[in-house]
Amino acid sequence: MTAISLDLSKKNELRWLSGLVRQVAAAAGDVPFFITGATARGLILQYGYEIEAARKTQDVDFAFMVETWPAFEALRSRLLATGEFAAAPGNAHRLLCNTGMLVDLVPFGAIERPDRTIAWPPNGSVVMNVFGFKEALAATISVLLPKRITTQIVSLPALALLKISAWTERRHVQPGKDAYDLRLILRHYLDAGNRDRLYTEAPQLLQQDDFDYETAGAWLLGHDMASLLAADGKAMVAALLERESNPNGSLALVGDMRTDPQTIMSLLSAMRRGFLGS
């Protein structure tokens, strides 16, 4: 997988995002951050490669690698001090922008616990799984927005990892949301700038008698996901993919994707094979 960049500077409908990124970057200072979630998905698929996504987003997710909780609180306070944002009642990681947009701030890094979760101050009762965020930061995509604003966004393989992790945590609270995004990435991965890589990185797929375009993309996605992870992370994701692509299992992820089960099973199985390099 090679690093890529997107030039979206002529997409005037994204000028609002340029303004938001400028404010966040000023508050972040030297703190590394990137855009994740459905906004990043839309920037890559819809604006980068004209792949329409039916599910729209009403918020923007920013992920910050911070050393301490006070450092994160200071960043959040700087955003609030601009007067452009207000705290969302009862939600420590959400701000309300004066444009009406919801802004979610996700900290990760040194504040993570051994199980790759964070526990929000002051009492740690709110716990969030941040597995995959450090890996995502190491493989971000550079995007040029209108007004010559440059920012980093999550790549599709990293976003797929984050969506799998989020699905395991909140599928009963937000059914279908993360599964939908994963399905969209699975079905369109080759069309998102990866088609030519089949010839250079996975020619064996083209030689198969039962070659299928979307299935080949799912294999390549799994391959790229594995390249982001260390051994312990690989083992965890491999176990999940094995379980969810097992035709004799619960098929929970297949069901949450809400489309032809046979097609989804083929895609998940191909992603698992690509992930395992088989």
Tell me what you see in this structure.
This protein has about 280 residues and is of the alpha+beta class. It has helices spanning about 15-30, 35-50, 70-80, 135, 155-170, 175-190, 195-200, 205, 215-225, 230-245, 250-255, 260-275; strands at about 5, 35, 60-65, 85, 95, 100-110, 115-120, 125-130, 140-145, 150-155. A five-stranded mixed β-sheet has the order 2-3-6-5-4. Helix 5 packs across helix 9 (about 215-225). The protein is globular and about 60 Å long.
Largest beta sheet, briefly?
5 strands, mixed
Structure summary, number of beta strands: 10
End-to-end distance? 17 Å
Structural class estimated from helices and strands: alpha+beta
Tally of DSSP helical segments: 12
Overall pLDDT metric: 94
Output the strand order for the largest sheet. Answer: 2-3-6-5-4
- Rounded to the nearest angstrom, the radius of gyration is 19 Å
Low-confidence residue ranges: none
Give the SSE order as H and E letters: EHEHEHEEEEEHEEHHHHHHHH
Brief rundown of the structure:
The chain is α+β, with helices and mostly antiparallel strands. The protein has helices spanning 15-28, 37-49, 69-81, 133-137, 156-170, 177-188, 197-201, 203-206, 213-226, 231-244, 252-256, 261-276; strands spanning 5-7, 33-36, 59-66, 85-87, 94-97, 102-109, 117-119, 127-129, 141-145, 149-153.
